[in-house]
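User: I've been trying to design a sequence by hand for this structure and keep getting stuck. Would you show me what you'd pick, starting by listing the structure so we're on the same page?

Assistant: Good idea, let's start from the same input. This is the structure you sent:
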């Protein structure tokens, strides 16, 4: 195979590496496999200066080896799925925004686009256009705006336009919809058995609206949609990625896969065969988040498929030309200049920060109150209990210094605090509750519908003759678990921006949010 074709295939990859600087894996990706694009995670990010320097080094590494600058991607959806949390980089997540009365998602998209591009990041991998119609969805939940397809479309299109105006590629996800499943595609193969007419009216609609508005790219869903293709998941299905996406919906942009190392692909098809099938289906850019071994398997499998004639060079050219057209649009034919001073200014921009904080504060929703907030205000010995903000799914990065609602609540309101286990009703928890040395309990639940230990703690508190305030630090579907509470509050997410908003609302008694999903 000639070197020019290898370089074209390399442009069809976006890969991750483990370090906060260009390391041996990053260099090997570019030099050995001509990988043309890179994806960052929290493990790669420390602060503004370091992120700017890293993106600058990635740009020059890719340009030196490929003659063109890379796409640099990151999952910056807002809320819990945010890799950069410094200053104006952090925005409320989709469902928190949907809880606001009339959020200006164009302005939010513009803000985050400007900040990300100043760092050197060209694709924040946003917005999420999944319609979360399944309360037991373990991977989307509050990452979706809501369960109303028209509202998802409106808010998502605003974000698309804002991101593009801010200089970033808009990547809508997860096509054709990840909202109505009960399996995490990081761990297995989700299936959506909805009839075609339901898929068309609910799942597909926000994507069609985004395509009509000029979305640059999409990220695929590793989900099987039996009404369209009862054999293959979306990422690997020609019926979905070509017949539906290109021929019926008229999408002209870049089709990017979700990570090919997720078990829905890796464990079922393998990274090599999965990569070949994704290209055959119509995908343009293959994402590998973690290991160089997976990239090597995929590259070698694609080389073999081209040499055998299974994939033609003309097919490679179709994707290569889409990639190069988008790089030209966003000024990536040569390494862009990254201005660290400008990045610092934008990340600390007081107007952006104020807007993001105001929307976070506006999102906090009072679901019910039978005097619980007043009892808490008068309490002399409140007890706050909540787990730390550890990662709950493969979409989130595990935190080395997780946020702790308990500690922040005690600091703001006094009383005692107990940092309870994420999913274990243990002897220490039992001892704290049975001691009963409190007059009001405030329990923070963090997606407890998937964690029996939290439910056991809730049941114990419900059985006690003490006032109980429950605060939902994840998706609001946990409200259906609550059998007794003197006040019930939804904060939608567990982040540096949401917790101060929740505590402010609790202390002032002022709530502006409206529940954007049906319970």
């Amino acid at each position: 195979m000639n070197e020019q074709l290898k370089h074209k295939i390399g442009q069809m990859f976006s890969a991750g590496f483990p370090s906060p600087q260009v390391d041996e894996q990053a260099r090997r990706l570019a030099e050995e496999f001509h990988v043309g694009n890179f994806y960052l995670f929290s493990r790669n990010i420390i602060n503004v200066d370091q992120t700017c320097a890293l993106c600058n080094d990635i740009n020059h590494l890719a340009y030196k080896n490929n003659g063109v600058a890379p796409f640099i991607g990151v999952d910056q959806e807002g809320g819990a799925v945010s890799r950069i949390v410094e200053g104006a980089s952090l925005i409320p997540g989709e469902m928190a925004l949907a809880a606001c009365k009339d959020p200006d998602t164009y302005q939010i998209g513009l803000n985050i686009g400007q900040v990300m591009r100043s760092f050197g990041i060209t694709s924040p991998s946003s917005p999420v256009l999944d319609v979360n119609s399944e309360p037991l969805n373990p991977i989307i939940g509050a990452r979706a705006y809501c369960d109303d397809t028209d509202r998802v479309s409106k808010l998502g299109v605003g974000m698309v336009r804002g991101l593009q105006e801010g200089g970033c590629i808009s990547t809508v996800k997860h096509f054709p919809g990840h909202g109505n499943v009960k399996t995490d595609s990081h761990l297995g193969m989700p299936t959506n058995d909805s009839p075609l007419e339901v898929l068309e009216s609910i799942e597909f609609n926000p994507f069609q609206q985004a395509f009509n508005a000029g979305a640059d790219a999409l990220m695929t869903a590793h989900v099987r949609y039996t009404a369209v293709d009862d054999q293959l998941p979306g990422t690997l299905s020609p019926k979905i990625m070509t017949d539906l996406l290109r021929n019926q919906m008229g999408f002209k942009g870049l089709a990017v896969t979700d990570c090919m190392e997720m078990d829905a692909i890796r464990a079922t098809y393998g990274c090599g065969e999965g990569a070949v099938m994704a290209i055959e289906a119509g995908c343009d850019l293959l994402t590998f988040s973690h290991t160089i071994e997976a990239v090597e398997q995929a590259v070698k499998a694609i080389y073999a498929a081209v040499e055998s004639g299974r994939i033609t060079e003309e097919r490679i050219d179709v994707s290569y030309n889409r990639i190069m057209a988008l790089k030209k649009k966003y000024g990536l034919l040569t390494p862009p200049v990254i201005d660290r001073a400008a990045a610092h200014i934008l990340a600390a921009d007081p107007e952006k920060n104020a807007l993001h904080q105001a929307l976070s504060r506006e999102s906090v929703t009072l679901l019910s109150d039978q005097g619980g907030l007043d009892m808490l205000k008068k309490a002399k010995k409140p007890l706050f209990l909540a787990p730390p903000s550890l990662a709950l799914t493969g979409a989130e990065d595990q935190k080395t210094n997780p946020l702790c609602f308990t500690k922040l609540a005690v600091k703001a309101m006094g009383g005692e605090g107990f940092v309870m286990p994420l999913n274990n009703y243990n002897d220490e928890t039992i001892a704290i509750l049975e001691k009963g040395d409190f007059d009001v309990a405030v329990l923070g639940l963090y997606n407890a519908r998937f964690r029996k230990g939290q439910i056991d703690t809730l049941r114990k508190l419900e059985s006690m003759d003490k006032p109980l305030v429950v605060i939902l630090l994840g998706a609001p579907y946990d409200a259906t678990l609550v059998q007794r509470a003197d006040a019930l509050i939804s904060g939608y997410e567990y982040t540096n921006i949401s917790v101060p908003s929740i505590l402010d609302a609790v202390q002032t008694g002022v709530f502006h949010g409206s529940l954007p999903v049906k319970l």
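That's my pick for every position. To get oriented when you compare it with your attempt: The mean pLDDT is 96. The longest strand covers residues 254-259.
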